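PROTEIN FOLDING TASK:
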Amino acid sequence: MAEPESLFEQLRGHFGGRLTDCWLERGEGTVDVRPAELLAVMTELRDGADWRFEQLSDIAGVDYAAYGQGEWITESATGSGFSRGVTDPDFGRLGLTGIYGTQTIEERSGQRFAAVYQLLSLTHNHRLRVRCFAEDDDLPVVPAVTGLWPSANWAEREAFDLYGIIFEGHPDLRRILTDYGFVGHPFRKDFPLIGNVEPRYDPEKGRVVYGPVEIEPRVLVPRVIREDNRYAAPRKAGGTEGQADG
């Protein structure tokens, strides 16, 4: 097994400009590839003698809206009353700032959704993460890799269902986790936490029906633990622990 650093030097030398970004973090390597280059690069990674990434372990969708921004900032919380730590940025309750890879979100310029592929080389005992950003936030599209790894079928359906990423060329791209007629993609950062509809049983129709959500949205405030003499350690009496006064 080669060291990750030497593997990445080979990747940079071989693929060159076809990799838009390439870095190591905590011993794990990631490369970024444009959608137009994805199938060609993936084919070489699978079949090339120096790579031999025969196994696709997983595909995950990612929504990078508000990446790197924490909304629960509690350093300035007061010591009494109910101190709310949540901030209120522009993107719903989320912001659109942060860094991913070695480039800022301004340098990414509107690339919000990505498909992330986990590859394993059984021949060389290498692991590699490949990431492909969709070029259009409103209609995120990346090529399907089911022709290279049939195991991608269900994983791409899951990313489509939860994030709305379209995998062009997929043989049967339909929802796999949500119910029939579900509206929206629940893992998107702008999807409401309470959902858009709620199910209930209709006794007249004798089945479950969907209607508008009746729960009012609210922000939960984290519990703040403060000093309380009821939970203080017992005091020593008469200089000796456990002795009674007098």
